[in-house]
Fold these 2 entries.
Entry 1:
Amino acid sequence: MRVKECLVWARERLAQSCERPVLEAELLLAHHMQKERVFLHMYEDKEVQNFEGFESLVLRRAAHEPYEYIVNKASFYDIELYVEHGVLIPRPETELLIDHVSRIIEEKGINRIVEIGVGSGAISIVLARKFPHLKIIATDICDIPLKVATRNIEQFGLQGQITLLKSNLMDEIKEDVQLVVSNPPYIAEDFVLEPNVADYEPKEALFGGKVGDELLKQIILDVQKRGIACLACEMGYDQKAPLQAFANETGVQTIDFYQDLAGFDRGFILLNKGEK
Ligand SMILES: C[S@@+](CC[C@H](N)C(=O)[O-])C[C@H]1O[C@@H](n2cnc3c(N)ncnc32)[C@H](O)[C@@H]1O
């Protein structure tokens, strides 16, 4: 089949499962042919080699598998990361967490931080690139994220700045740090997710417990117990009130919530007593 015929075939297969079947057909064919998308428009009569290979990519996408798992890469902030099944695909809303944390790192002159739940390495890698003086210890409880984060950290040559540790939350961390950042699992266990998420992304990265905010609350307690000055977390759109109440009960100094670009509550910055 020629390029233009492949595109027509693919977009018909993708029409039910994708919001933008024309674009995704082009992205998958460009990936299959190891070319830029513009090549497809310049050479629409070119014969496509190994149609079966392309067909299998399109059928995976038609079955709702996320594009990022099919091509093994995801864009985040100013970088592209390797991803595979078993690791969360980094989300655009998490870029806001980076901006909030960056402001605190600058204002307070922070140089030692922990990330809980490193996943692909998205947050730690972007922060390490922005702040070359920063030392980061990043934990995860699962092996695949630790393997994928290792690969991405090496890809960017950041082994000197980021240390990975298999740990439940911060349990294995002995060092003193000034700030903790986390995008932990925060979805309630009975929440019904879209098939592209529910059927493909790791449960350990999504569900935070029966209510959803259990790990967030545990992180708040751990940070307080260790006397760590700052905590910055992403959270669910409906978790502001319970987390505000919990923070008040535990006697933190301040907790400021931020919203995402759609206006939903999406995260918080918490300062412990004694911090300004
Ligand atoms: C929502 S994902 C975030 C991944 C990455 N930081 C990002 O923003 O794309 C949460 C990560 O936390 C890890 N995780 C879940 N429970 C954990 C725990 N108790 N301790 C440490 N990591 C945990 C999961 O394996 C997953 O990689």
Entry 2:
Amino acid sequence: MSFRAGPSVFKDRSKVSFDYIPEKLPHRDAQMQRLFSMFRPVGDSGLASNAFLYGSVGTGKTHTAKRFCEDFRLYANKQGRGFDHVHVNCRQKMGDDAVLLHILKHFDARFPDRGFSIPEKLDSLRKWLEKQQVHLAIILDEVDVLLKKSGSELVYTFSRFGEEAGKGNVSLILISQRRDSIDRLDAAAMSTFRRTNAVEFPKYSEEELADILKTRVGLAFHPGTVDDKIIALIADIASEYGDARYAIDLVESAGSAADAEVADEVGPEHVRIAKAGVTQSDLQERLAELDRNQRLVLLGIARKIRKKTYITTGDAEEAYHVVCEEFHEKRRAHTQFWKYLQDLDAMGLIDAKKSGEGVVGKTTMISLPGIPAKTLSDKLAEMVTKRSKGGTFG
Ligand SMILES: Nc1ncnc2c1ncn2[C@@H]1O[C@H](COP(=O)(O)OP(=O)(O)OP(=O)(O)O)[C@@H](O)[C@H]1O
Ligand SMILES: [Mg+2]
């Protein structure tokens, strides 16, 4: 068939997608500068440094850290030093072993998933850093998940990395939405991690959100398609949370709504449509991190729980089987299903609690924290369907 390529308000939609990292982050100069003063010794004299970034959802922690590392590499290179960074999402790579594996794959994409112990992996990392002559900044994002699951040993190991040689060759950037995550570090790790290295990311004000939107709209939309009044309206809506991701999602979605009507520009009604469809928070991003099996399990739960507060794991497993049938997916065994439940629980997507302590045959009850079941099941069904269309390997 021939496609009808109608006009679009977008000039480059990738500029409003969640993985686009802006060259410049308006209103984060102070945080960038703080990071620079902490990391300066890394570039000037090869000493390691640590930083802890905290602030609520969508305040730019992840993207500031990534942008900083990219920019700092140039500075370090000018001082004649190699600098590299790797970003680890601890919600996705849970546990010390998975984190290390992810870091090693940054250097060697074919590093085997199995067969190497943690000390062997650390040794490998050491060799890579020597071979490439780089100082490595490791960004441990959503670090509370790691600390909760595995304790602070790995953080401690990294903060002492390469010290035998007199100078450290690993620096850490820890990120969390909560300031008190840092308190999870044990005494040893805490002593290498000074409290003064905390950088706050406050919620954005309405004016700041408007600035951020303006810059982004300039990159992503055709001129004249998004009026300042529309930007102000979106900034106003998003300012309730101070969340830049929400603001950007809203403008993208409003753009889609305008395109769907083949409108010349984005109007207030498109923003309202967007608002009804976009969930505040990082939901989209978090779901994108799940693998197919985890999505199917969560989809089952989301459907089953619609009119209830809790469901049992038995209910959840049954619902999972129904979903597998619907999407022609081979269902995984019971033990594997449990593992998925634990993953989802650790990621905070579900809340699993033992009920009726002391009662014979006590069961685990599942609830959904915060996210409406309908929103969740719609999003997941869309993701799962898209992948099925991709064919066997899709
Ligand atoms: N100052 C800014 N200028 C431009 N874009 C920004 C700014 N701050 C955040 N953004 C954009 O908003 C989105 C969310 O930012 P980011 O992922 O860094 O937030 P976060 O603080 O890590 O949130 P979370 O706690 O949910 O992980 C990204 O698309 C990012 O590019
Ligand atoms: Mg983040």
